[in-house]
Structures are given as structure tokens and as C-alpha cells.
Design brief:
Structural class: alpha/beta
Distance between the termini: 69 Å
Largest sheet: 7 strands, mixed
Number of domains: 3
Radius of gyration: 27 Å
CATH superfamily of the largest domain: Spore Coat Polysaccharide Biosynthesis Protein SpsA, Chain A
CATH topology of the largest domain: Spore Coat Polysaccharide Biosynthesis Protein SpsA, Chain A
Number of strands: 16
CATH architecture of the largest domain: Alpha-Beta Complex
Number of helices: 19
Helix content: 25-40%
Strand order of the largest sheet: 3-2-1-4-6-5-7
């Protein structure tokens, strides 16, 4: 029986070579059947793996389950898929030498799913925290209570027949992966067998869960939430007694969601936005940290070692050009006085929930003058501070400025007017609904909106924590107003601030977008008889 060994990794540059060497000694599968899924590593994991003849995949969406799902989708495309697949961790906490015992059970037809049982050695094993052992026993107790099946462990080392794995229709993207596999296998009537295995402390680095109380509790809650959700779907009406517990588990999902956004890997080749963890990775003594929050926010919660920038300082302030950028020479002169040059790494922190998108305006300005190593910190100061507490330090390659490839992300009123009726050209009004409908609270000469523009409020692009919503959700929002992500989009607001934030998000998600910096301050001041119409 041919097999495949799936190993999700994230920042395991030191341990994964040893794991691969351990597996090579076993000669259990060919090297190309060792499938490593890089789940957003920011260290040298990808470079280390190039030394081996293994199969390498990259999964941008963080989560243990997401990495495993990526591997399954790849295996489904093979002309000769494996008969069995093994899952193991890449930090060398699992003993590769124990894997053949699990595979042997599968090959002899003794079970459909074989999992490693670490409890046999727990008394002498100090690698797991008490709370982890307790949580494991609690879930196993619940499995026995509701399914009458005795399991001792839900560990990571496991082997399953591939055709049976596909029948499970796995979908859990995070830490509920193992419990989902076990519960669905039980519900499908699979034969499950446990084999005693050893377990040890990770080979190097810091564990993402063990010893990290910020992760142990939410991961534990996620596992239990997955259990009860699957139980509820399978056995209707048996969970009334647990409804109050489920409400509590919902709180843990918020924590896990934050962790995902905190560690999200944005593609630096295209993005104007980075996660807090990426930002800290880019942060050095030479990095320029820019605070664009209000005076009150800066006074109450100062941002250490930062420079305050006001978008108005770089903008024209007289009609009809109010809101438009000053010429590049003036802007560069101001930046030079603040020791910000084109080679600087610029990180911009705003107030996504309480602000007006000032961070978007500033990063848009930097990109407009070809400062391509400028980024918004997703989530704002709160999560920047949280990432800084973790003291993460990685080497992330930066882009180099190339003026021959410069792209302008601004558009002038005349060009906008001429393109209004063009095919596949879309204008988004990012203001409040009342402004779109004709109200003029911020000094517009006339009220209304640019003809055929669609209302797309900038605040709707953020979740309740101030993180930018995922690409799929943003594309769904565009689709709801009949806008394709392949459209050529122009955003506008009152003075090109809120709309710059929307352009920053769209560009970072691969959408062609420009910001009309003059926006309503300019458009409403131009003559209607010259074609600068407004609708209500």
C-alpha cells in the first residue's frame, strides 16, 4: 500500500530538517511522498526545505486544519492518490520511529483510522501541561458519554485510509481538526484503533500552544466547541443541557479569530497592509513608525518612538483643489525634514474603528510618490502593542523601488467624468449613507453622489475588532452591489481620505482601484453645465 505523510509547519526552520531525516531513515515512503505544508512561515522554513526532495505546498490561510485541507486537495488531483495518509507535527514532538506501528495496523486491515495514544507514557512525560492533559481527558470522557466509544487520546500522530478520509468531508480550519476527524469517523462507523506512542518537547523554538496560556485556553475551547457542534448536528435534541456552555464557547471563537488576523501573512509584493506580527517582523531601529490617530487617542495611549503625520499637511487646502495632494516636490521636502526617505520602512498605525481612514490616506500618499515599503498595521495600535509584547523578530525581504514600474493611484476629475459610462468602470461612494443621498455635513458645495456611483461605506470593510475583513468577504460585498473584482474601480468620499482607505484595501486584495483625491470637495464645486453632475 502506497502512502503519504502530511506535515503542516509554521516557522520550523530548525526542527523540520531533523523530522525529514528521521522519516528518511525509516524508508516508509519515498521522499516525494513526504508532503510539507508551509502555513505562513516568516522564518527560513521554505529555504531549508529546498534542500530536500519532498513535496512542498504553501497555505496562506493560517490554521492547522487549513494546512491539512490544502494537502488533501492536492492529493485528490494526483492520478494515483495514496491508499493511506499520516499526519504528524513538524516540531519533532512526535517520534517518527513510532509511525510504522500505526501504518502496520492500516496495512493489515485492522482499522480505518489509527491514532497515537500518548497516555501510556504520560506519567514520565513533562512536555504537556496539566490543563492540556485535563482537556484531553475531558473530551475523551464526553466521547464515551455520548458515543459509548472508549478513546484515551486525541493526539496529532495518526494514520487514516485516504478514501475514508475523503468520506469525512473535513472542513475545520483551525485546532478542531483532530477532534473533527475522530467524531466524524465515529459517526461514520469507522473502525478506530489506538496505538501507544511516545511524545517529547519540541526540538527548538517556542510552542504555539504548550506553555502559552493565551493559546491553551482558546484552543481547548475550540476543540470542545467543535465536539458539541458535531454532536448537535448528529444527535438532535441531546444538547439542551449544554446550551449555556455553547454560549461560553462562542467567546473563545473571537479569541481564535483575533489570533488569525494577528498572524495573517499579507503578500508584500502587492499589499499596502500587513498584520501586527508582520509589522513587528519589519520593525528595526531604522523603521519609521507613524501615528495618524487623533490628539485624544495619542494623549491617552501614546505610541512609543512614533512620528505624528497629519494628511492635511500634504494636501491642498483651497477650493476647488481642497483635498488633492500637493506636488511631489513639496511632499518630499516635508518628508525629508522628518528624516523619512524612499528607502525607509514605513509602518502606519491608525484608529480603524474610531477614525476616518487616515492611515489609508497616508499609505496612499506614500505609494503615490513611490514609497513602496510603506504599510498600514491591520487592527491598529491595540494589536500592534500586543504583537510587540511577543517580541517576534524575523527577516522579511523588502521590495526595491523601481521608478520605471511606477503606477499612479490617483485620478483627476476630467478623466473620471469622461470614463463614467465606460464598460467595466465602477465608481464607489465610500461616505455615510446620508451623504450619498444628498446631505452636505462636511462642506460640499452641492449635495448628492456622482452619477451611477454605488454606495460602499468604508467602515463596513472592518470587523468588530478593527481588522480588515477577509478577501472573500470583501469580494462578496462587492458582488452584492453587482461589482466584479475584475472591474476598474475609482473610490471617492468628501476629501479623499475614507476613499483612500478603501483603495488601500482593494489594491491589497488584487483589485484595480484608484482614489479620487479631489472627491466631493472638488466635484461639487465644478460647474454642472460642464458635465460634473450629481444624483440624489
Amino acid at each position: 500500500m502506497n502512502g503519504c505523510i502530511i506535515i503542516p509547519v509554521r516557522n520550523e526552520e530548525e526542527s523540520i530538517p531533523i523530522v525529514i531525516q528521521d522519516l528518511q531513515k525509516l524508508n516508509l515512503v519515498p521522499d516525494t511522498s513526504i508532503l510539507i505544508i508551509d502555513n505562513g512561515s516568516t522564518d527560513s522554513t521554505s529555504n531549508v526545505l529546498k534542500k530536500f526532495n519532498i513535496t512542498y505546498l504553501y497555505e496562506n490561510n493560517l490554521g492547522y486544519g487549513s494546512a491539512c485541507l490544502k494537502a488533501i486537495e492536492f492529493l485528490k488531483t494526483l492520478p494515483n492518490p495514496p491508499e493511506w495518509v499520516a499526519f504528524m507535527d513538524g516540531d519533532r514532538s512526535d517520534y517518527a520511529e513510532d509511525l510504522p506501528f500505526l501504518v502496520d495496523v492500516i496495512q493489515k486491515g485492522g482499522a480505518n483510522l489509527v491514532t497515537g495514544d500518548r497516555t501510556f507514557f504520560w506519567d514520565q512525560n513533562k512536555s504537556l501541561q496539566f490543563i492540556q492533559k485535563f482537556g484531553n481527558r475531558l473530551v475523551c470522557f464526553l466521547i464515551k458519554l455520548f458515543y459509548k466509544i472508549q478513546l484515551n487520546d486525541l493526539g496529532p500522530l495518526r494514520v487514516i485510509q485516504f478514501d475514508k478520509l475523503l468520506l469525512l468531508d473535513m472542513e475545520e480550519p483551525t485546532w478542531g481538526w483532530n477532534i473533527e476527524m475522530n467524531i466524524k469517523a465515529i459517526q461514520q462507523g469507522f473502525r478506530i484503533q489506538e496505538v501507544p506512542v511516545r511524545y517529547r518537547n519540541r526540538y527548538s523554538g517556542k510552542s504555539k500552544i504548550s506553555g502559552n496560556w493565551k493559546m491553551i485556553l482558546p484552543v481547548g475551547f475550540k476543540i470542545l466547541e467543535t465536539f458539541f457542534r458535531l454532536l448537535k448536528n448528529h444527535k438532535k435534541g441531546t444538547l439542551k443541557v449544554f446550551l449555556s456552555i455553547l454560549i461560553f464557547f462562542q467567546c473563545s471563537n473571537k479569541t481564535l479569530g483575533i489570533e488569525t488576523y494577528m498572524n495573517k501573512i499579507w503578500d508584500l509584493r502587492t499589499t499596502w497592509i500587513v498584520s501586527p506580527t508582520q509589522g513587528v517582523s519589519l520593525y528595526t531601529d531604522q523603521t519609521i513608525l507613524i501615528d495618524v490617530r487623533s490628539y485624544t487617542k495619542r494623549f491617552i495611549s501614546p505610541l512609543k518612538n512614533s512620528i505624528y503625520l497629519d494628511w492635511k499637511e500634504f494636501s491642498l487646502d483651497s477650493k476647488p483643489d481642497r483635498g488633492k495632494l500637493k506636488n511631489s516636490e513639496e511632499i518630499l521636502k516635508i518628508l525629508k525634514s522628518k528624516n523619512i526617505n524612499r528607502d525607509s520602512i514605513v509602518l502606519i498605525i491608525g484608529d480603524p474603528l474610531g477614525g476616518w481612514g487616515e492611515e489609508g490616506r497616508i499609505v496612499w500618499m506614500f505609494r503615490e510618490i513611490d514609497y513602496i515599503n510603506s504599510y498600514i498595521i491591520d487592527g491598529g495600535k491595540k494589536y500592534w502593542d500586543l504583537a510587540m509584547e511577543e517580541h517576534i523578530s524575523k527577516n522579511i525581504p523588502l521590495l526595491k523601488s523601481d521608478n520605471t514600474k511606477f503606477t499612479s493611484y490617483d485620478i483627476q476629475a476630467l478623466e473620471l467624468k469622461e470614463k463614467l459610462n465606460s464598460l467595466n468602470f465602477v465608481v464607489l461612494d465610500t461616505r455615510e449613507k446620508r451623504e450619498y443621498q444628498g446631505s452636505t455635513p462636511y462642506g460640499e458645495t452641492r449635495g448628492g453622489h456622482i452619477p451611477n456611483s454605488k454606495w460602499f461605506y468604508f467602515k463596513d470593510l472592518f470587523d468588530s475588532n478593527g481588522f480588515i475583513k477577509e478577501k472573500q468577504k470583501v469580494e462578496s460585498m462587492l458582488s452584492s452591489i453587482n461589482v466584479s473584482p475584475s472591474s476598474s474601480i475609482v473610490t471617492y468620499c468628501t476629501g479623499g481620505v475614507r476613499s483612500a482607505m478603501v483603495t488601500a484595501i482593494l489594491v491589497s486584495y488584487g483589485v484595480q482601484s484608484r482614489n479620487y483625491s479631489g472627491s466631493m470637495w472638488e466635484w461639487s464645486s465644478l460647474k454642472e453645465e460642464d458635465g460634473y453632475l450629481l444624483s440624489k
